[in-house]
Structures are given as structure tokens and as C-alpha cells.
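About this split. The held-out portion is used to measure sequence recovery: a designer receives only the C-alpha cells and must propose an amino acid at every position. Recovery is the fraction of positions where the proposal matches the reference. Here is one held-out target exactly as it appears in the evaluation file.
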């Protein structure tokens, strides 16, 4: 399920979500690529009573100890400049990035819970509890990191012979059509909060290049990996290689006007061509191995004799099968050659002999 949303809290808390910052990280790992989702929320308590929390729906699986509070990182001016993309005024426990002074508030990790009613292997809902009450009419900024354990359709690798040759991202915000499989979908949809300003950042490995991006991003650029080392905790994640940032911005995101971000990526290294060569080599080796086993004196010779087919006919059938396979590929091969022949013909017509 590819749905992200800010939700009314478990106790009916309904803050105003002024801004939502989502960072979707695909980081290098030793045996697998760890995924992390950072969520920053600028909220305002527009009610007449104190507010203690809210909930967030995430387009990925999570686990009970997969939540981390990032408020400590918001005490560094350089890190704040990276997160907000501009200089940020820092004074005591408040920050100002052009919206007025907003208090940085931590999330109580022990008191925050993974909502078992809504959560699945590829979708999770966290009931976030603030470290203390947010007074009426007050504002706060909170930021958390969630370790992803199942991406579902949000991120899928494209593979050839087991090798990663590309990926697809499908990231949706407040699009409750994605909630079809949830119990009591209508009750869930009623809990979705409006997001006044949405900022989505997707960081993908530098060896992936875009084939299709929808909608048009606000910008695409290379991540300043060294500058983000402290924020990413380099000692735990390892030194980050080159990453590419895709950044989208949307306003007034609601269930009637959701956000849908899509990426189709392919490897900048021709792994698919290498995979084709490896498949061909494996097929040839398998044919040779089969012929050697079925030949005179081979371990499969008695079976061939029992079937009643001579070795010469068996070899002919294998050769015929290979020939049919290549004939079936001729339209595809011609489709690649024809444009080049057309260009060559056009060039020759311009040459005077």
C-alpha cells in the first residue's frame, strides 16, 4: 500500500498540519539496501485544549522498535539548513525558517505505539506521543525516523538474472483509494488530516537514472553526501555514495486532492545487456552439457535408447530448437537494425560519388 497520511490521534487529537516534510532514503548496505523514512511535521494546536500527539500512516512496514526521535539533530544550524534548504534561525529550543519562531518538540518513543489494527507487512500506522502537551494556539515542529522493513508497492526493484537493473517508486499522500484493503476504510479516511504544504524528497542511489518522473519535480540534483553524514549517522549507515534527490512540492493536500509521485528508474550501467549475454552463455552451456550426457557412453544414453531416438536426431532437435528461438527473435532484431539502415541510407544519398 503506497499511502502516506497525517491522521487524527488515537484520542481524537486533531492538529493543524501546516507543513509536512518527507524524506525517503535508499541507503547502501552490506547485504541489502536499508530504507528509512524521515517525517517532519510543523503542527499548530488550533483547539482550546492541550494536545499530546497525532498519528501518521506510512507506505511501508515497520516494527515496534523502528521509531527514532530526531529532535536532537535540530539543535545544529548546519543540519537545519540542509533540512529546510535555507538558513534557519536557532534560538534556545525554537527555530525560524520564515514561518515565525516554532518550538522544536521531541516525540516520546516509549509512549508512541505501532497501531496493530491498521498495520500490515507493507503499511503501518504510528500513534505518536509528544514528550509534553502542546498548549492551545501553540505551534511545534517534530521530526522522526522510521526503519522500513517492507516497501510493498512503494518501492520495487527491477531485476534481470537476480541483478538490480532499475526500480519503480509509487508514493501517494492522502490518496485513500489506497486504503481499500484496510478494515473499516471509511473510518480511516475520516481520520486523514489536511496538509497545507507538502515537501517530498526521495533520495535514490546515483547509479539509477530516470526514465519517467511524474509529476514534474521542483528540482532534481545530486545530494551533498558529505554534508549529510552527521544527519545520516555515518557510523551506522556507512559512508554514503552519490545519491540523486527528486523533490516535489504540493499545497492543500486532502483526500479529495491527494498527491501521487511516480518514478521509473533504470541502471546507468548496462546490466541488462550483461544479463542477456549471461543467459545466452548459460543456455549454450546447458545444451552442451545435455549433449555430452546423452551422447554415446554418456549417463543419459540408456534413456535416449529407451525413448527410441538416435543421438543424431536428438542433436538435431536441440539445434532446431535453438534455431526456432533465434527466428522468433528476428522481428525484435530487425526493429533495432531498421532505424540504423534508414539513417545510413539517408547519409549515402547525401554523398556524391
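Reference sequence for scoring:
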Amino acid at each position: 500500500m503506497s499511502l502516506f497520511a497525517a491522521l487524527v490521534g488515537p484520542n481524537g487529537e486533531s492538529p493543524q498540519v501546516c507543513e509536512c516534510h518527507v524524506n525517503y532514503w535508499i541507503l547502501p548496505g552490506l547485504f541489502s539496501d536499508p530504507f528509512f523514512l524521515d517525517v517532519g511535521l510543523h503542527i499548530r494546536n488550533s483547539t482550546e485544549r492541550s494536545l499530546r500527539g497525532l498519528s501518521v500512516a506510512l507506505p511501508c512496514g515497520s516494527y515496534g522498535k523502528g521509531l527514532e526521535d530526531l529532535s536532537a539533530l535540530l539543535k545544529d544550524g548546519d543540519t537545519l539548513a540542509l533540512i529546510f534548504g535555507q538558513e534557519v534561525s536557532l534560538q534556545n529550543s525554537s527555530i525560524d525558517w520564515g514561518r515565525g519562531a516554532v518550538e522544536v518538540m521531541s516525540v516520546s518513543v516509549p509512549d508512541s505505539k505501532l497501531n496493530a489494527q491498521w498495520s500490515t507487512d507493507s503499511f503501518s500506522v504510528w500513534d505518536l506521543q509528544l514528550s509534553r502537551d502542546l498548549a492551545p494556539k501553540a505551534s511545534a515542529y517534530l521530526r522522526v525516523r522510521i526503519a522500513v522493513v517492507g516497501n510493498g508497492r512503494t518501492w520495487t526493484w527491477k531485476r534481470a538474472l537476480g541483478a538490480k537493473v532499475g526500480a519503480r517508486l509509487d508514493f501517494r499522500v492522502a490518496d485513500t483509494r489506497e486504503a481499500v484493503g484496510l478494515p473499516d476504510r471509511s473510518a480511516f479516511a475520516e481520520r486523514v488530516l489536511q496538509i497545507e504544504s507538502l515537501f517530498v524528497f526521495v533520495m535514490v542511489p546515483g547509479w539509477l537514472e530516470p526514465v519517467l518522473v511524474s509529476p514534474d519535480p521542483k528540482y532534481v540534483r545530486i545530494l551533498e553526501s558529505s554534508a549529510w553524514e552527521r544527519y545520516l549517522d555515518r557510523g551506522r549507515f556507512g559512508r554514503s555514495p552519490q545519491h540523486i534527490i527528486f523533490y516535489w512540492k504540493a499545497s492543500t493536500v486532502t483526500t479529495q486532492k491527494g498527491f501521487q509521485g511516480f518514478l521509473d528508474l533504470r541502471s546507468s550501467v548496462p546490466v541488462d545487456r550483461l544479463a542477456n549475454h549471461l543467459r545466452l552463455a548459460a543456455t549454450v552451456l546447458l545444451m552442451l552439457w545435455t549433449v555430452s550426457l546423452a551422447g554415446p557412453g554418456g549417463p543419459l544414453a540408456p534413456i535416449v535408447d529407451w525413448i527410441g531416438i538416435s543421438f543424431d536426431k536428438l542433436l538435431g532437435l536441440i539445434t532446431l530448437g535453438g534455431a526456432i528461438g533465434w527466428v522468433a527473435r528476428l522481428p525484435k532484431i530487425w526493429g533495432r537494425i531498421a532505424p540504423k539502415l534508414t539513417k545510413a541510407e539517408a547519409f549515402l544519398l547525401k554523398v556524391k560519388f
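Annotator remark: Confidence is low (pLDDT under 50) at residues 349-353.
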